[in-house]
Amino acid sequence: MEAAEVARLRGDFPLLEREVNGHGIAYLDSGATAQKPVCVIDAEQDFLTRSNAAVHRGAHTLAVEATDAYETGRATLARFVGAGEDEIVWTKNATEALNVVAYGFANASAGLGGAQAARFRLGPEDSIVVTEMEHHANLVPWQQLAQRTGAQLRWLPLTDSGRLDLTDLTGIVDSSTKVLAFTHVSNVLGTITDTAPLTARAREVGALTVLDACQSVPHMPVDLRALDVDFAAFSGHKMLGPTGVGALYGRAELLNALPPVLTGGSMITSVTMEGAEFMPAPQRFEAGTQPVAQIVGLTAAVEYLEHIGMDRVAEHEREIGARMLDGVRRIEGVRLLGPEDPAARIGAVAFDVDGVHSHDVGQYLDAAGVAVRVGHHCAQPLHRRYGVTSSTRASAAVYTDTGDVDRFLQALAEVRGFFRVGA
Fold this sequence. Notes:
423 residues; alpha/beta; Aspartate Aminotransferase, domain 2; 7-stranded mixed β-sheet; 4-stranded antiparallel β-sheet; 16% strand
């Protein structure tokens, strides 16, 4: 995108007009939460002021309008990620989506779900495989599942350059493996995973694949069916949408066989005092009152991204990421984490400043009006692998421009001098 178009897009995001500490804000924390365009804010407000009602529970006009908006959102999101409408389950975030799958396996392993759930049962003879680069949301649920079932937890390691080490893929993912869970894009390293060898190996051994797509769906074209994964999770707030809403993708036949985790109203066909029968997917996973206004906002966000075009979003962020990458590498005393090739990563750069804690780095940048993420980014094993306890991450979105990057790099270059490190 040309600079003029990016400038016009930035005008759609009211928060970018804010000043922080006397400076116009350079928002480089989109990997944590993206900012919202006016159309998303307006869509939520319009729903709440005109059509607010419970979905699938009434025949009055407002209930019909709310239900239509709810299901239109599902259809829109399904189209966006290459899924069927019956393959998208609403959740409150990606963490919940991943837990729905893991706890579904646990319920099946406890005997729930009948014969159709047999494929999800695990025991001491089975293994679960993750990777060393996972966000805790795609690691801890599998640790818990292994502890509940006695299954062995294994992981694919990382190379020094920040990529998955698949040297022993066939040894780690073997005939005992029932689940292979991996991230599409590392939330720390920015590394884009080549999913093909992972899904191919899973098919060879009969394992089910679970993809963390939180950092890919907002930043590049994603077709979940084409990726040939069985389940995937992503969240609304990282893709210009509201907080409090996310989605679980699952192949229809798997969702209809997986035992539900949350049970109660709106997900049953019949209930007696002795038991209950559940609805088909996706409703079987949508117990209780749903975040309808947030879904309306997310629908607007998806349509906004579609209007721009995800190919163009990816190209813009690749250029921004390359500028950040090149600038960080040039600053003395700053160690880059992850691949040095900008084509191998999204527009996110994590780094360690020699002699300065990441929290201090973040505070100095904030004083200059630059917002970044600091800490272990819910990925402690990854940081441990590279010998650091925490890092600083600058991450881009479609509204990020070269001015944001240049201000960030200028402030970062001043950090060690300010703290009198290396003088």
